[in-house]
Task: structure prediction
Amino acid sequence: MKPLQTSAGDLNADRRADYAEMLHASGDHAQAAELLLGALELAPQWAMGWFRLGEMQETACRLDLAAQAWTMSLKLDPSDRQGAALKLQLIGKGPAASAPPGAFVEALFDHYAETFDAALVGKLDYRLPEALEQAIRKARPGRFGLALDLGCGTGLMGERLRPIVDRLEGFDISTGMLKKARAKGVYDALTKVDLQELSYSGGKADLVTAADVVIYVGALEGLMGTVAGMLADGGLFAFSVESLADGGEFALQPSRRYAHSRSYVRRVLAVNGLSILSLEPTTIRLDRREPVKGLAVVAIKLPAA
Result:
């Protein structure tokens, strides 16, 4: 997320913060942190400022001071729109979480909604919707009656699905993203919801998709159970994960996204009555010009025994 995107509410504090950003950009991280701390003396209730101070202290390799700043940010904003708890976890100063704060995910995507498509497709070479579409068509040629697009964002996956579905519904946590998706006119219905709290009572779906979504979920047991309940027998679930190469089930990455292991994905699907039809390595996007490796998965819901 772009740093210091809101005002401290104090003109002098804002000026000091701007100068701190200039110093930080020039490589003088410690001095930048000191200057931002001075700004926070003028605006001590500025949760976003404390979060940014933590980032500067982290870059200056002063992890104890970074932890203090992130703890203050979390205290001032318990909903944790900045994701301070995740930063504390990553430096070993906070408990491990099975999912990110919903407010963090919502704020992140609301912030990026206006430039999301151009940045993701144009700059980060995002081709996952195309890869999932091809996997879906290969698994089952033809049309789908009802498709549910989880974490639909601005509708990049929906644009791929629209030609092959009769009814398409999208779900997302971000109001900004849903506004962009609505403007494209590819969905029959759009719903604002945190996928961690998703409760679905509509008709059984022939297809559920989650393109580049479970990276903001962490533990998959709850979501997979929800998806299994959404699907008709024989329905498909097409989704992606970032690959966890170091063993284990899932892990929070420095990007504050989650990566999942192949074995964990297989196990959680099987427990929920979903059988893998295809599981293919893919490149999700670029991150700092490096490819982010992942898996494109299509599973089918088996009839109950």
The chain has two domains: 11-96, 114-301. The two ends are 46 Å apart (CA to CA). The domain at 11-96 is CATH 1.25.40.10 (Serine Threonine Protein Phosphatase 5, Tetratricopeptide repeat).
